[in-house]
Amino acid sequence: MSSFLSEYGLTSQEGIALMCLAEALLRVPDTTTIDTLISDKISAAHWGKHLGHSSSSLVNASTWTLLLTGKILKEADVGDVADTLRRIVKRLGEPVVRVVVAQAIRRIADQFILGTTIESATERGEGLVRKGYGYSYDMLGESALTADDARRYWSSYFQAIEFIASKCNSDNFWENPGISVKLSALHPRYQSTQREFILDELVDSVLSLAQLAKKANMGFNIDAEEADTLDLSLEVIKRTLSNPSLKGWHGFGAVVQAYSPSARFVIDCLYGLAEKLIVESCCDL
């Protein structure tokens, strides 16, 4: 699996197609939609350029499979004998292709996705937790388009924190499971152009979740967002952490995209904020 993911990374069109399928297929309820997704993502990708690139014979064999699958599922132009043959193969083979690709994609998804619910995710993670690993649970598909979406995501985070709290058995929050929150899931207009309009509402939403996490003595991380909303994310973090109700709590964290050119700036900014809060806390004492 490591070799396969190394060949089809997120820097390639094919890797993005596979990751889209890996996430989407877990939530698709019917075979018609699965057929459409596979046809759309597999047939458009350029699998041929990956042939023979990997040192793994299994990966190279998988590339051949994806290449042939793409040709079978691709719509052909009328009037060409070869294309007519492809259409015949498509009619005969697509159900088989669908099953094989769906199974393969679920294998890939299995490497990244612990479960479809917080209950199943924590249950599956227990094995590694016993070996000393820790989890900050994240939710997939977070993007609030409406106020109803934002309320639903906030409620999902709230319920997840309440459930994870039952697993927090240590006095040290580092040893307890945590949660990662997407700011874009908590407001439908998470854009820098809407900064002043959304800040108060968004900070209130984040603060209420952070207070619940603090009470449970668990980690609470603000997940990374798009680069164009980075300043907005930092402002939300600053305003949330400055709330007196979170003083003395060390479980608040922020995810930094280390590959981004702005990573050093972000780390310096967060470090400066942490120092300021520590100084203020000491002065209060």
From TrEMBL:
Cross-referenced InterPro entries: FAD-linked_oxidoreductase-like, PRODH_PutA_dom_I/II, PRODH_PutA_dom_II, Proline_DH_dom
Domain named Proline dehydrogenase: residues: 123-276
One Pfam family here: Pro_dh
Taxon lineage: Eukaryota, Metazoa, Porifera, Demospongiae, Heteroscleromorpha
Domain Proline dehydrogenase PutA residue range list: 1-112
SUPFAM superfamilies for this protein: FAD-linked oxidoreductase, N-terminal domain of bifunctional PutA protein
Listed name of the protein: Bifunctional protein PutA
Biological source species: Geodia barretti
Keyword line: Oxidoreductase
GO molecular function per UniProt: L-glutamate gamma-semialdehyde dehydrogenase activity
